[in-house]
Amino acid sequence: MEMKTDGMDKSVQVSAKEGYSIRAMREEDYAAVHALWERIHGFALRSIDDSEEGIRRFIRRNPGCSIVAETNGRIIGTILCGHDGRTATFYHVCVDEDFRRLGIGKKMVVAAMQALKEEKINTITLIAFTNNEVGNAFWNGIGWQKRSDANQYNFKLNEENIIAFTK
C-alpha cells in the first residue's frame, strides 16, 4: 500500500484488482457517510454530534484524519478520527456488512494512523461497546489492547445530544 499526500487530502491508492480506495473524508461526503452509518446493525448515532453540522465541524477541526473507503463512488467504510494534539480518538469505525473480511477496515486504520503520525500523535483510543462482538473481535485481531487499568467516564454537557441505535 502506498501513501500519497496532496495537501490536506491524504489518500491511499489501492490496486484496481481490490476494487476500492481509501482516502481522507471530506465534508461533502456527509450524506453518503451518514447513510452507511444508518445501514450498520446496532450503530450508535448522536443527534447533534453526528448531524451534518457536527460532522463538518469535526472534519474542519481535524483535517485529513478521518478516513473513508469507497468503491465505484459508494462509501463502504469510515473512521471518524480526531485529536487534541496529544491523543487521538477513533469514532464510527465501520465497514458495510457486504464488504467485511476483505481487509478494508485494517487498511483504513493504517491510513488514519499514518495521518496521525504526520501530526506527531503517539496514542490512539477508541470505545467499542461491550456487546459489539464484531468490533471487539476486529480490534483484538489486529493487535489493539483492551485496557484494564482505566475506567471510561462521560459527563453530558448537552442533554439534547441523544444517542439512538440503528436496527
Explain what the structure shows.
This protein is an alpha+beta fold. Helices cover about 25% and strands about 30% of the residues. It contains four helices and nine strands, in the order E-E-E-H-E-H-E-E-E-H-E-H-E. The protein is globular, with a radius of gyration of 15 Å.
State the secondary-structure class. alpha+beta
Low-pLDDT parts are 1-16
**Major sheet: size, sense and barrel closure?**
7 strands, mixed
| H-E string | EEEHEHEEEHEHE
- Strand neighbour order, sheet with most strands: 1-2-3-5-6-7-8
Shape: globular
Radius of gyration: 15 Å
Distance between the termini: 35 Å
The tally of beta strands, per DSSP, is 9
Number of distinct helices? 4
Task: Give the mean pLDDT.
Answer: 85
Strand content: 25-35%
Helix content: 25-40%
Q: What is the strand and helix layout of this fold?
A:
Blueprint: E1 2-6, E2 9-13, E3 21-24, H1 30-39, E4 44-46, H2 52-61, E5 67-71, E6 74-83, E7 87-95, H3 104-118, E8 123-126, H4 133-141, E9 163-165
Parallel strand pairs: 7-8
Antiparallel strand pairs: 1-2, 2-3, 3-5, 4-9, 5-6, 6-7
